[in-house]
Q: What sequence folds into this?
C-alpha cells in the first residue's frame, strides 16, 4: 500500500513560479529518504503530507486519506519533527509534550502518561522535568522526536532529524528511528541533505528537483558495480599504478590522494579481484582493502540531478517514476 | 513469570479528550499568571481590595460613621434610608476602585499578555500547533480566553464581592431585597469588566501576533493605553464631534465609563448644570462596548491570520 | 611574526567559573586542512574561541602565526572565522556588508569592495551579491560567511560546522573549496560532527573529549594506535575452510568466525594478516574476492575513542 500517493500535484504561491509542478509520486512503507536541493519544493510537499495545504491542483492521499478533505484526520495520524528549534515557551519537557498530546485530542491523564513514555523512550531520562530552554542541542533533538511521537502516529515526517547532534547521538537516534520502522511498523519520511545517513537508514528515496518529482527508487537495488573495487594499500604507488595501467585496470579515482588510501579501480568483471592481488604481490604493495564498490547514494543522487536516471542495474524506478528532461531552467 | 515488550509501545487510549481550545487556554493562562508582573500587580490589587473592603465595612457598620455618611450622601428634600445610602456609597466606591484598578488591569494585560502569541512566534512554537489536528479558530479562541480569565481575577471578582458585601451588611432580612433592587450595580461591574477584557485582549492579541518581541509589544501597548487615556482627557476639554471621538479612544476610560455614568446618576451633584456637564464629558458605556468589541475582533483576526499560515518548515 | 600559517597551543587550560572547557591541551596545526572532532561539550568551541582570540586561556599559551591572538588585531588580520551561528546585518546588501567588514581589517574602500566581490564569486554567490542576507537560504548564508572569512585573505581559517544547511551539491562544492584552500597552504581548521565529511576534507584529525586531546593523526594512524580494539577484517572467499587454518596461527590473530561469505577475522596485527592473505592470493593458493577491514573508518575510530 502506498503511504503517500500524489497525482498531478501543482501548487503555486502568488505569482511566483510554482513550488510544485505536476508532481506524481508514491511513497511506500518503511523509511523513505526525501531528497532534493534547496528550493526543490520539499517544504511544500511536507505541507501537503501534513494536511496543511488547503488549495492545490491534482490529487493527494496520505495514509489513504484525502489531503484536501481529511486534513485534520491526517494531522492526527502523522507526526512531524521540524528541522528548526521549536518549543513551547517556558515549560518543562514533560509539560510541553503532554500539551501537544492534548492538542491531538488525548485526554489530560493519558497525554501525561504518554508524554513520560515517549520522552523516556527517546532517552531524555530525568531531564524531562527540566525547562526545555536548558536542553543541549542533542537533548532538544530527542525532545522534538518525542513531540512528534506523542500521539503514536502511523507516519512520521522528520526534517533533518540528526541536525546538531554529535556522532554518537547521530548513531543512537538513527538506530532508534530505524527500530520504530522495523519493530513498530511506523512509516517514516526522512528529509535530509546528508546522504550517507539516508543511505544507512532508508529503504527507498524520493527525489525532487525544481518542483518536479524525479522518481522513487528502492535502495536495495543499488547493486555493486561489477568489476569496480575500492582499494587501499601501503607501498610505492607509481610502479603499482603503472602495472595496473599495463593490465588494463583503470584507476577511476584516487580520493585519498596518491597515498593509496582510497582508490577506485575498474577491471574486467570476469576476472574478479585476482589480478589486483597478483599485481600487488609482484610490486611489494600491501593491500589493506579490496572491496567491491556499490554506487553510493550520493553518486546516484548527483546523476538524478544531472538528468540521468539510474540505470536498471543500479536502481530500478517504481511505476510512479516519470522523467522530465530538457526543461530545467 | 513474563517478560513484556520493551521499548516503544503503541498508544491505546482515546483521542476523545476535551476541546483543544481548553488546552490552549489552560497553557496560556498558567503562563500569564506565572509572570512576575502579574504576581506583583496582583498583590497591589489585593492590597487595594482589602483597604476598600475595610473602608466599606466601616462605612456600613459603624454607627457614627453611618450617620455622618447620611448627611454626605442625602439630598435635602427626599426620603433617605440605609439602602439608598448603601447604593450611593457603593457606586462612589466602585468608581474610585475601578478608576485605579482599570489602569492596573491595563498594566497586567500589557505585561502578562505581551507574550500570548509573541512567545509562540519567538520560540517558533506556532508550527507545533499547526501540525496538530486543530482549527485556526480554536487557536484564536484558546488565546483570546486567556486575558479575560486573568482580568476576571482583578477586575470582576472585586466588584462582585463588593456588591455581595453591601447586600450582606444590610439589616437582617433585607439582603435579598437590596441585592434585587441594585442589580444594575452588578450589571455595571460586569459591563465594565467585559469592556476592559474585550478591549485589552483585542489590543494585546493584535500586537502580540505582529512581532515575536515581547518588549515591542509592551512598548506599543503602553503607548496605546496611556496615550489613549491622555487623548480622552483632552476630549473633555473639547466640544462636538472631536469630543465624542476623543473621549472614546481610551480603552481604560471606556472600561470605567459604566461606573462614571452610574455615579453621575446618583445625583450627588446638587447643581443641575454640573451634572449636565459631567454627563457630557463621561464616555458612553454603549459606545465603549462597541469600541472594545471592534478592537477584539481586529485582534482576533490578526491571530487568525497567523494561525492560518502553513509555514512549518524553511 | 612567523611567516608560516600555524596554530600552536601549549598546555592551554580554559574554564568558565567551575566548568572546564579545555584541560591542559597541547596541539599544533600547520598548513593544510585539519579536522577537529569531539562529542558535544568536548571543548571544541572553547578551542576555536581561544584560537580566534575571543577567549584568553587561564593557563598555557596559544599562538597563532607565532603571536598571542587574544585582543590582538594584528593577529586577527591573518585569521578568518566561519562561525556556526550567523549574524549578518539584515538590511544591507551582502556585498556592502562584507566590504564593510573587510574595511575593518584595514583595507581601503575600493580594495575591500574588490575583495568582497571576488570572494562572493568564489563561493558561488556572484549572482546575488546585491541582495540582503535576510532572504538567503541557509546554504547561501553559509557561503556568505565563508566569503566574509576569506575577504582579507587570511592565512589561518577556522570553520565551525561549515557545511551546515548546504544541500548535497553545495556540500560537494564547498568541500572542494575547503580542500583547495588547504592546498594553497593555508592552515584550515574544520570542526564538524559529520564524520564522513571531515574525512573528505581533512587528513589530519584532532579528537577532543572532556576538554582533553584524546588523539591526533590520520584516521588510520589513530586506529593503529588503538591496539586494545582488534581490527575486524571481513575476508570474502569461497576457500574459507582452507584459509582459516593457515592464518589462525598468525601473530595477533584472535577469533576467526566462519560466515557464509567467508571469514571474519579479528587481529591486533593487521599488517601480518594483510601480508599473509595478499601473498596467498597473489600466488593463487586461495581466491580472495574481497578484503574489508570493517572497523577502520573514522566512525569506528571515533566510537572507540569516545566510548
A:
Amino acid at each position: 500500500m502506498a503511504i503517500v500517493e500524489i497525482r498531478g500535484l501543482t501548487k503555486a504561491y502568488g505569482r511566483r513560479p510554482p513550488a510544485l509542478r505536476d508532481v506524481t509520486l508514491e511513497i511506500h512503507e518503511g523509511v523513505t529518504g526525501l531528497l532534493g536541493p534547496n528550493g526543490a519544493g520539499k517544504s511544500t510537499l511536507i505541507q501537503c503530507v501534513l494536511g496543511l495545504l488547503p488549495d492545490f491542483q491534482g490529487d493527494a492521499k496520505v495514509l489513504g486519506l484525502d489531503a484536501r478533505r481529511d486534513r485534520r484526520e491526517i494531522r492526527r495520524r502523522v507526526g512531524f519533527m521540524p528541522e528548526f528549534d521549536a518549543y513551547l515557551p517556558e515549560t518543562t519537557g514533560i509539560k510541553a509534550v503532554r500539551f501537544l498530546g492534548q492538542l491531538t485530542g488525548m485526554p489530560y491523564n493519558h497525554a501525561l502518561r504518554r508524554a513520560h513514555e515517549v520522552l523516556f523512550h527517546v532517552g531524555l531520562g530525568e531531564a524531562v522535568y527540566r525547562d526545555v530552554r536548558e536542553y543541549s542541542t542533542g537533548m532538544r533533538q530527542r525532545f522534538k522526536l518525542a513531540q512528534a511521537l506523542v500521539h503514536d502516529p502511523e507516519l512520521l515526517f522528520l526534517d533533518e532529524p540528526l541536525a546538531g547532534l554529535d556522532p554518537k547521538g547521530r548513531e543512537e537516534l538513527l538506530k532508534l528511528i530505524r527500530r520504530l520502522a522495523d519493530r513498530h511498523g511506523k512509516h517514516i519520511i526522512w528529509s535530509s541533505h546528508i546522504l550517507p545517513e539516508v543511505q544507512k537508514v532508508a529503504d527507498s528515496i524520493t527525489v525532487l528537483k525544481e518542483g518536479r518529482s524525479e522518481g522513487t527508487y528502492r535502495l536495495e537495488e543499488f547493486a555493486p558495480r561489477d568489476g569496480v573495487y575500492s582499494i587501499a594499500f601501503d607501498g610505492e604507488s607509481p610502479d603499482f599504478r603503472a602495472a595496473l595501467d599495463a593490465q588494463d585496470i583503470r584507476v577511476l579515482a584516487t580520493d585519498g590522494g596518491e597515498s593509496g588510501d582510497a582508490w577506485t579501480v575498474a577491471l574486467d568483471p570476469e576476472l574478479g579481484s585476482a589480478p589486483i592481488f597478483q599485481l600487488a604481490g609482484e610490486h611489494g604493495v600491501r593491500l589493506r582493502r579490496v572491496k567491491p564498490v556499490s554506487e553510493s547514494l550520493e553518486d546516484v543522487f548527483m546523476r538524478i540531478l544531472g538528468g540521468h536516471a539510474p540505470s536498471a542495474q543500479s536502481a530500478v524506478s517504481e511505476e510512479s517514476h516519470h522523467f522530465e528532461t530538457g526543461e530545467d531552467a | 513469570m513474563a517478560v513484556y515488550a520493551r521499548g516503544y509501545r503503541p498508544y491505546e487510549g482515546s483521542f476523545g479528550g476535551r476541546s483543544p481550545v481548553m488546552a490552549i487556554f489552560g497553557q496560556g493562562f498558567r503562563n500569564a499568571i506565572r509572570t512576575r508582573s502579574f504576581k506583583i500587580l496582583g498583590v497591589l490589587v489585593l492590597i487595594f481590595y482589602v483597604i476598600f473592603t475595610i473602608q466599606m465595612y466601616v462605612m456600613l457598620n459603624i454607627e457614627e460613621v453611618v450617620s455622618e455618611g447620611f448627611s454626605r450622601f442625602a439630598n435635602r428634600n427626599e426620603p433617605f434610608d440605609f439602602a439608598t445610602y448603601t447604593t450611593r456609597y457603593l457606586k462612589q466606591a466602585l468608581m474610585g476602585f475601578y478608576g485605579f484598578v482599570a489602569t492596573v488591569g491595563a498594566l497586567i494585560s500589557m505585561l502578562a499578555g505581551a507574550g500570548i502569541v509573541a512567545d509562540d512566534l519567538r520560540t517558533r512554537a506556532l508550527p507545533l500547533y499547526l501540525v496538530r489536528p486543530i482549527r485556526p479558530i480554536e487557536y484564536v479562541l484558546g488565546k483570546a480566553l486567556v486575558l479575560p480569565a486573568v482580568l476576571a481575577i482583578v477586575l470582576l471578582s472585586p466588584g462582585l464581592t463588593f456588591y455581595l458585601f453591601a447586600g450582606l451588611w444590610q439589616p437582617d432580612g433585607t439582603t435579598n431585597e437590596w441585592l434585587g433592587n441594585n442589580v444594575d450595580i452588578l450589571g455595571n461591574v460586569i459591563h465594565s469588566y467585559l469592556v476592559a477584557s474585550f478591549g485589552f485582549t483585542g489590543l494585546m492579541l493584535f500586537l502580540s501576533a505582529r512581532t515575536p518581541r515581547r518588549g515591542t509589544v509592551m512598548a506599543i501597548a503602553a503607548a496605546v493605553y496611556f496615550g489613549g487615556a491622555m487623548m480622552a482627557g483632552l476630549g473633555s476639554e473639547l466640544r462636538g464631534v472631536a469630543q465624542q471621538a476623543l473621549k472614546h479612544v481610551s480603552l481604560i476610560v471606556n472600561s470605567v465609563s459604566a461606573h462614571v455614568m452610574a455615579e453621575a446618576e446618583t445625583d450627588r451633584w446638587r447643581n443641575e448644570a454640573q451634572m449636565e456637564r459631567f454627563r457630557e464629558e463621561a464616555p458612553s458605556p454603549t459606545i465603549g462596548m462597541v469600541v472594545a468589541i471592534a478592537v477584539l475582533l481586529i485582534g482576533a483576526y490578526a491571530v487568525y491570520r497567523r494561525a492560518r499560515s502553513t509555514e512549518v518548515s524553511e | 611574526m612567523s611567516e608560516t600559517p600555524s596554530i600552536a597551543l601549549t598546555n592551554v587550560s580554559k574554564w568558565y567559573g567551575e566548568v572546564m572547557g579545555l584541560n591542559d591541551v597541547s596541539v599544533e596545526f600547520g598548513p593544510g586542512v585539519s579536522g577537529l572532532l569531539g562529542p558535544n561539550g568536548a571543548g571544541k568551541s572553547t578551542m576555536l574561541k581561544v584560537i580566534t582570540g575571543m577567549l584568553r586561556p587561564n593557563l598555557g599559551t596559544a599562538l597563532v602565526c607565532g603571536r598571542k591572538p587574544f585582543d590582538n588585531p594584528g593577529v586577527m588580520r591573518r585569521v578568518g572565522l566561519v562561525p556556526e551561528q550567523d549574524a549578518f546585518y539584515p538590511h544591507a546588501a551582502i556585498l556592502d556588508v562584507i566590504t564593510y567588514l573587510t574595511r575593518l581589517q584595514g583595507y581601503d574602500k575600493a580594495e575591500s569592495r574588490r575583495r568582497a566581490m571576488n570572494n562572493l564569486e568564489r563561493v558561488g554567490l556572484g549572482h546575488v551579491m546585491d541582495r540582503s542576507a535576510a532572504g538567503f537560504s541557509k546554504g547561501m548564508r553559509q557561503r556568505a560567511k565563508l566569503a566574509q572569512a576569506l575577504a582579507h585573505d587570511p592565512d589561518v581559517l577556522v570553520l565551525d560546522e561549515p557545511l551546515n544547511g548546504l544541500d548535497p551539491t553545495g556540500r560537494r562544492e564547498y568541500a572542494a573549496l575547503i580542500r583547495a584552500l588547504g592546498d594553497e597552504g593555508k592552515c584550515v581548521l574544520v570542526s564538524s560532527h559529520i564524520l564522513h565529511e571531515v574525512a573528505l576534507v581533512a587528513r589530519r584529525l584532532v579528537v577532543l573529549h572532556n576538554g582533553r586531546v584524546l588523539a591526533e593523526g590520520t584516521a588510520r594512524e589513530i586506529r593503529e594506535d588503538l591496539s586494545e580494539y582488534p581490527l575486524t577484517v571481513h575476508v570474502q572467499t569461497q576457500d574459507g575452510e582452507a584459509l582459516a587454518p593457515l592464518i589462525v596461527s598468525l601473530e595477533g590473530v584472535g577469533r576467526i568466525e566462519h560466515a557464509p561469505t567467508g571469514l571474519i577475522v579479528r587481529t591486533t596485527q593487521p599488517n601480518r594478516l594483510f601480508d599473509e592473505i595478499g601473498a596467498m592470493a597473489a600466488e593463487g593458493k586461495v581466491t580472495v574476492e574481497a578484503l574489508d577491514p570493517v572497523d577502520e573508518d573514522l566512525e569506528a575510530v571515533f566510537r572507540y575513542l569516545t566510548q
Observations:
- The first strand of chain C starts at residue 7 and ends at 16.
- The mean pLDDT of chain C is 90.
- The two ends of chain C are 41 Å apart (CA to CA).
- The CA atoms of residues 179 and 201 of chain C lie 6 Å apart.
